[in-house]
Amino acid sequence: MNTIAMKFPGRRQHKHYFPVENKTPLTNKVNSEPKLARSYIVGIDQILVDIEAKVDDEFLTEFSLKRGMSQVITDEVTHRLYQRLKDEQLINYEFAGGTIGNTMHNYSVLADDRSVLLGVMSKNMQVGDYAYRFVSNTSSRVDLNYLQPVDGPIGRCFTLIDDTGERTFAINAGLINKLKPESIDESLISNAAALVISSYLMRTEEGDTMTQATLKAVECANKAGVPVVLTLGTKFLIEKEPEFWRKFVKDHVNILAMNEDEAQAITGITDPLKAADACLDWVDLVICTAGPEGLFMAGYVDEQHKRATEYPLLSGAIADFNRYEYSRPMLLKDCVNPVRIYTHTAPYMGGPDNIKNTNGAGDAALAAVLHDLSANVYHKMNVDDSSKHLQPAMTYSSLSQISKYANRVSFEILMQHSPRLSRGLPEREDSLEQAYWAL
Fold first, then answer.
1. What confidence tens digit (pLDDT) does each residue in 151-160 have?
2. Which amino acids are annotated as binding site, given as ranges?
3. What residues form the annotated binding site for ATP?
4. Tens-digit pLDDT profile for residues 227-279
5. What would the 3-class secondary structure string for the chain be?
6. Domain locations in the chain as residue ranges
7. Residue stretches of the annotated binding site for GMP
8. What is the pTM for the complete model shown?
9. CATH topology of domain 4-47+97-154+175-437
């Protein structure tokens, strides 16, 4: 595998990418360990544990759960539900979860570097409880020092899978929505490479403070020019208030991540490529996963920096849409003569023979995109005079390259039960030719 998007901002082999072997004029010795500035990303999440179990329709009916939907359940129902699953040995797996928690973990595994997670965490933690499971299953590279302590439980999300493979989500919030605005460190946000949030943070009840805390962080990021990344989370939430989400995205978001169902909910367009194109009216970069169709991405580049693809031109809802997929995406405001660019990547190796889990595949794809974005910030911080930065690009790699990387990472999740990576990608893969990673 020969792709620089997978090499940094972690400490691994950075000598191949930075001029760190120059001899110092005083000692005439090689300075092999320079002190490099570090980049990081910040994410806000409802801290919870995912519990996956196989159930039948009667089980869903017993607990008044609507098949295929995401629903909030009370503490009493949560206790009965969990006990029933335990008694009948229906639980397959218990993992640290949360869409942004998954993304931060996967980013830190890929980048081998720091990310920061904001949210709440139980003040009193015991071995084996939900809070313990979350912390013990999160990468040590994820900085949890900014979590707000609370006197009570974190959240629990039950993923109940029936015989057809349909997933029904039952969520007990615990105290996950009690993050206070005063717990948001403005300097932490303003110095980050990106701020990552989800639509779930806006689904709160009266008395909760999560939404206010999130809006404070978003306002801080907007003011500091830090890209705001929004993952749409679930179509059921978006289709309730599509106008609200369109306005919020247009006013505050730079990068939008979604699947084809969420894309339809916010745009009203079924075709994922056309939906991604429509979202460019509001944001600078779009990531749309489309199941067996693969991954679509859309963005902007200035006319003078566009690069034509060397692959055959593809036509779908947009003719020859991948013509400039070798371009590096830019913020629209940095483009004098903006050109819309698109790319598509088919499922890696045709997709897994046996998909074990789709939960978290989109989070993994987003983590790969964030890795490349952070790599660009990292490189600029340390090699500002590089010709790479004559173009004010958002990312280090081309749109095509990022899409391949994101697609490859999501494949790892599809092959396992956990929504989180346990290791980074291999340095080389015999199944891939070098040409796969060509820019």
1. 988 999 898 9
2. 98-102, 203, 289-294, 362, 407
3. 289-294, 362, 407
4. 999 999 888 899 999 999 999 999 999 999 999 999 999 999 999 999 999 99
5. CCCHHHCCCCCCCHHHCCCCCCECCCCCCECCCCCCCCCCEEEECCCEEEEEEECCHHHHHHCCCCCCCEEECCHHHHHHHHHHHHHCCCEEEEEECCHHHHHHHHHHHHHCCCEEEECEEECCCCCCCHHHHHHHCCCCCEECCCCEEECCCCEEEEEEECCCCCEEEEEECCCCCCCCHHHCCHHHHHCCCCEEEEHHHHCCCCCCCHHHHHHHHHHHHHHHCCCEEEECCCHHHHCCCHHHHHHHHHHHCCEEEEEHHHHHHHHCCCCHHHHHHHHCCCCCEEEEECHHHCEEEEEEEEHHHCCCCCCCCCCCCCCCCCCCCCCCCECHHHCCCEEEEEEEECCHHHCCCCCCCCCCHHHHHHHHHHHHHHHHHHHHHHCCCCHHHHCCECCCCCHHHHHHHHHHHHHHHHCCCCCCCCCCCCCCCCCCCHHHHCC
6. 4-47+97-154+175-437
7. 98-102, 203
8. 0.86
9. UDP-N-acetylmuramoyl-L-alanine:D-glutamate ligase (3.40.1190)
